[in-house]
């Protein structure tokens, strides 16, 4: 058995040597493929198989090109240290990768970057050859990894958006024409025949202000009400999706779509421990509702997500997808409750007074 195994391994080595012709670069690319491809497939496992195949191959090709360029630059710099062009390209690539990965959005990320930059500049000025070479190789490899992963993330977001978007086909309308009252945070959309009032610590984003990830869901995004003016994904928030009257969209379909969206987040390891809860909604007239609790892995806490399906005077459906912190003994957070009570289907209807308003 041992002789057979050794013979098999020797044949594999011979084949690999003939295939790569002894090239270290090709061997590294093969090793990268064997390591990266299973990761890409696992990362996209929540999508249909044809999406997984296309995304994984695209990410592998993109990553291989970046790795080839990175290894080539490292080899050239190793032979010709202190080459200014290679250093400039490496620095710009690293900074771009950090920016694209939103590292600079956080104070700790900025501190990390300035400390690292100071150390690298110091050893560059002191001309410590070995450490200079190691530093350049490190920032190139880290930049390569961040760019590859960010590219995969971007394509994945686009795929998820298209996947939900294609489930219900209808002609989209302009839902950016929201009007705001001059005296209150009261909004009205003539196309939707719907309006609402938001508390002072909430903000409204039109569809044109949202990115693809925030727009992902069944139906046409009509807007997003958030508790932050810089981070539309911070709890609590409400996303609104529009379905025209000629499209069949009932409560069971709404439950299926929102459940699919939450299960996709589980597959991406963003949330876990998803549990359905019974929650009859009585703050506004509706066709039905359903909610789930979950543990948010990205923001360590228990939260709640679900939907309320409402209908306007034209019999168009509007899906209110709500995500909020889990409050014991309360159906909703105070801000969300205030917004839901203020929903109206007539422009002349007086907005619900805001209980937080001192007037």
Automatic annotation (TrEMBL):
Protein's recorded name: YIP1 family protein
Keyword annotations: Membrane, Transmembrane, Transmembrane helix
Organism of origin: Leptospira kobayashii
Transmembrane segments: 25-43, 49-73, 85-105, 111-127, 134-152
């Amino acid at each position: 058995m041992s002789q057979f195994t050794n013979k098999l391994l020797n044949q594999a080595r011979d084949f690999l040597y003939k295939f790569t012709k002894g090239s270290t670069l090709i061997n590294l690319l093969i090793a990268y493929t064997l390591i990266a491809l299973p990761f890409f497939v696992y990362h996209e496992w929540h999508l249909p198989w044809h999406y997984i195949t296309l995304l994984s191959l695209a990410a592998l090709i993109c990553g291989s090109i970046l790795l080839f360029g990175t290894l080539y630059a490292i080899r050239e710099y190793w032979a010709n240290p202190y080459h200014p062009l290679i250093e400039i390209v490496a620095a710009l690539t690293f900074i771009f990768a950090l920016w694209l990965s939103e590292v600079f959005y956080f104070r700790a990320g900025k501190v990390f970057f300035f400390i690292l930059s100071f150390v690298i500049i110091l050893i560059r000025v002191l001309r410590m050859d070995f450490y200079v070479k190691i530093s350049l190789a490190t920032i190139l490899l880290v930049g390569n990894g961040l760019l590859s992963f960010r590219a995969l993330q971007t394509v994945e977001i686009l795929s998820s958006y298209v996947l939900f978007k294609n489930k219900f086909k209808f002609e989209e309308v302009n839902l950016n024409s929201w009007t705001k009252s001059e005296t209150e945070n009261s909004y009205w959309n003539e196309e939707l025949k719907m309006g609402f009032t938001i508390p002072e610590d909430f903000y409204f984003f039109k569809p044109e202000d949202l990115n693809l990830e925030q727009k992902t869901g069944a139906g046409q995004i009509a807007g997003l009400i958030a508790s932050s003016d810089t981070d539309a994904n911070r709890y609590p928030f409400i996303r609104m999706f529009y379905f025209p009257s000629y499209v069949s969209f009932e409560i069971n379909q709404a439950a299926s779509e929102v459940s699919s969206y939450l299960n996709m987040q589980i597959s991406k390891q963003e949330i876990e421990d998803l549990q359905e809860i019974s929650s009859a909604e009585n703050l506004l007239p509706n066709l039905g509702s359903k909610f789930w609790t979950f543990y948010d892995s990205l923001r360590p806490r228990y939260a709640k997500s679900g939907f309320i399906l409402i209908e306007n005077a034209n019999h168009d459906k509007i899906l209110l997808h709500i995500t909020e912190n889990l409050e014991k003994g309360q159906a909703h957070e105070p801000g969300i409750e205030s917004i839901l009570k203020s929903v109206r289907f007539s422009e002349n209807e007086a907005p619900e007074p805001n209980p937080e308003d001192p007037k």
